[in-house]
Specification:
134 residues, mainly alpha, Substrate Binding Domain Of Dnak, Chain:A, Domain 2, 5 helices, elongated
């Protein structure tokens, strides 16, 4: 059984939003968390690590927020959306901040390019899900 299968099993409570959008957002959160962790690790191994501290810090913050948001969304029932909205808004902000930090180094660090792209995708899906929640 895949993650999506478990999320949408017949026993799950009814959802008030598009389940495909919710699943895309969950996947984007976990993909972004992984890209941020990989970027931070690669930056920590770089000889110019002192120049990458802002990038590393934003990578770690974003990875934590994306992980937490992905886990929260995995339990989403649609009953109380206040906490979900707060997480999505904060996750989009963390992704925006991280993408901006990584984009400063993208021309010389491939991991920063990949991370910035994952952050922008996650930011977009979080904002789309926020809009769907109303």
């Amino acid at each position: 059984m895949t993650h999506g299968d478990m999320l949408w099993a017949d026993s799950a409570p009814s959802r008030q939003i598009d389940s495909e959008l919710l699943l895309r957002c969950i996947e984007a959160c976990f993909d972004c968390a992984q890209a941020c962790a990989e970027c931070a690790d690669a930056c920590l191994s770089d000889p110019a690590v002192a120049d990458l501290t802002e990038c590393i810090r934003s990578d770690l913050d974003c990875a934590d927020m994306c992980e937490a948001t992905g886990r929260l969304l995995s339990r989403f029932t649609g009953d109380d959306t206040n906490l979900t909205r707060a997480f999505l808004d904060t996750c989009a902000a963390a992704c925006r901040t991280c993408a901006a930090a990584c984009e400063q180094h993208a021309s010389t660090h491939a991991q920063c390019t990949a991370c910035a792209e994952a952050c922008r995708r996650c930011e977009e899906t979080c904002e789309a899900l926020l809009a769907a929640l109303g």
